[in-house]
Specification:
This protein has 122 residues and is an alpha/beta fold. It contains five helices and five strands; from the N terminus they run E-H-E-H-E-H-E-H-E-H.
Length: 122
């Protein structure tokens, strides 16, 4: 089972993503956040395998959050969902994250979550 912390805003989109991911027998959303401070706090408390971030979430500096989590003792794998994959990828400056384009669809997102969940944790 791959556990996921979902970081998304607005709530309606977060609920839709959670509902879709709940259909996967090997993926479990264990927490939700809509900003970076809440995401970091929940990641520390829940220790998810994967953090799923929407790069276009307001009040979320994606590259800063990915770097901050990389400094944690147990860093979850990161999957970043974005409309602008090239800009996000370059902004991450080599930080360990899988970037999935929103245009790639749910199958690609689920595949990225599974792949990230199988990666060894830091």
């Amino acid at each position: 089972m791959t556990t996921v912390l979902l970081i998304e805003h607005p709530l309606a989109v977060r609920r839709a993503l959670r509902a879709r991911l709940s259909l996967e027998p090997d993926v479990q959303v264990i927490g939700e956040a809509d900003d970076a401070p809440q995401a970091i706090c929940l990641a520390r408390a829940l220790d998810p395998d994967v953090m799923l971030l929407d790069a276009e979430t307001p009040y979320l500096d994606t590259s800063r959050l990915v770097r901050a989590m990389a400094d944690e003792e147990r860093c979850p794998a990161m999957v970043v969902l974005s409309q602008h994959t090239a800009a996000i990828t370059s902004g991450l400056n080599g930080s360990p994250a899988i970037v999935v384009g929103k245009h790639e669809g749910l199958a690609a997102l689920v595949a990225a979550i599974r792949s990230a969940g199988r990666s060894p944790r830091q």
